[in-house]
Amino acid sequence: MTAGFLIASAFLASAVEFVEALTIVLVAGISRGWRSALAGLGAATLALAAIVAALGPALTQIPISALRLLVGALLLAFGLQWLRKAILRASGFKPLHDEEAIFARELAEARAAETGERAGLDWYGFTLAFKGVLLEGLEVAFIVITFGWSLPFTTSSSTPTVPLSAMIKLLPLVPGELMM
To answer: Would you state the pLDDT for residue 40?
Structure first.
């Protein structure tokens, strides 16, 4: 039962990151051209696969308590920033988050950016899609690692079993593969 909730939590959190990556690729495709956006998506997917393949096994060498302390400290720091912004928005000191206005502003900025072609691609569109997918994919990897080490099919407190290792290595590929 606990494993099901942990897997569902990791899946739902990863789905949020997928939507964010999809939005970035859509903006890059609409504003700068689909060829550059899809090339950036593909390059980021390959980079994620290489990063996870290279660094994934190395994570088993880090003591789980140190990793939990690091992740907990980062979550606390980000959580306190989000709490501060939420309090400021609720009290009226900061305007509410208007997603449509933010999307329109970012789309206008992307369209207005200078056109610079390299290797037949619009470099701004390629970079926008690449950086967005890479960042969101790395977030998915951290989500899977964080939830994964709590799953009951790990053999010790610091070493995941083969199914978990496969999840850690393959899940960052999901945003890129689903968007193609």
So the answer is: 93
Sequence-separated (6 or more) residues with CB below 8 Å from residue 18? 136, 140, 174, 175, 178, 179
pLDDT tens for each residue of 76-114: 888 888 889 889 988 988 888 777 888 788 888 878 877
Burial letters for 5-24: b for 16+ Cβ neighbours within 10 Å, e otherwise?
A: ebeeebeebbeebbebbbeb
Query: Tokens in use for 171?
Result: 């899940």
CA distance 43 to 5: 33
- The predicted model scores a pTM of 0.67
| CA 115 – CA 131 distance, rounded (Å) | 18
> 44-62: per-residue pLDDT in tens?
999 998 988 888 777 778 7
Sign of the C-alpha dihedral computed for residues 163, 165, 170 and 174 taken in this order: positive
Give dist(CA 146, CA 73) in Å, integer.
13
The three-state secondary structure class of 121 is strand
Type of residue found at 37: A
Q: Where are the alpha helices (DSSP H) in 33-96?
A: 34-55, 64-91
Instruction: With H, G, I as helix, E, B as strand and everything else as coil, classify residue 154.
Output: strand
